[in-house]
Specification:
about 210 residues; alpha+beta; two-stranded antiparallel sheet
Length: about 210
């Protein structure tokens, strides 16, 4: 499925981005929305296929999954008000902050627009604290319960903690809401976002058309 011309463009753009930001490495994945075909997949430097094989905490890119769960379960609407206070909330010994920002009362839409850690963490914790399994099941339904790719070896399974795990604490659920206390690959995140762009229909990415 790879497009040689697009692959060259993506590789050059990725190299510029990694060099500009002094990053250790970077990945770029270009998927065709309505088919799941991978048109380009690049790693820089080309020493390891991080795009497929490296699990990371996705951070704020995961907020859209949490927002989709809250909206889908009917807990919040985009114009509902969320209290973020002074941009700091504590769960046991863990502090969640908005990096020095104090947004106060904002709409749920602005929680996403401002990428508010506090807004997303308190929202997910408020509505799923009594039933964290419901949140986990929603994430599994979004594709984070299995590897995205079956045409290339080396992809690890997504890792989402559940209340049955020893590592689970009072801070785990709010941490997961904005992409921590969990691990996924760049390809798994790209697959989820492709599902959003595809009107809510998840497609398994693929790269081999024929042998």
């Amino acid at each position: 499925t790879l497009d040689v011309d697009l692959q060259e463009i993506v590789e050059r753009a990725l190299e510029r981005g990694v060099v500009k930001h002094y990053a250790k490495h970077g990945v770029a994945i270009l998927m065709e929305v309505n088919t799941g075909e991978i048109k380009a997949i690049a790693n820089y430097p080309e020493t390891y296929n991080h795009a497929v094989a490296t699990s990371i905490e996705p951070g704020s890119t995961f907020k859209l999954a949490s927002a989709a769960a809250l909206l889908d379960d009917g807990f919040l609407k985009l114009n509902d008000t969320v209290a973020t206070g002074n941009g700091l909330v504590e769960y046991d010994d863990k502090q969640i902050t908005d990096n020095g920002k104090a947004y106060g009362d904002i709409t749920f839409k602005d929680v996403l627009a401002f990428s508010s850690n506090v807004g997303m963490a308190t929202s997910v914790d408020s509505f799923y604290k009594a039933e964290p399994e419901k949140y986990i099941q929603k994430m599994l339904s979004f594709g984070f319960g299995q590897a995205a790719f079956d045409q290339m070896s080396g992809e690890p399974q997504p890792k989402l903690l559940s209340p049955d795990d020893e590592e689970w604490t009072i801070a785990t659920l709010p941490s997961q809401s904005y992409g921590y206390s969990m691990r996924v690959t760049p390809l798994q995140m790209a697959t989820f976002y492709n599902g959003i762009a595809n009107g809510g229909q998840l497609l398994r990415p693929w790269i081999v058309k024929q042998v």
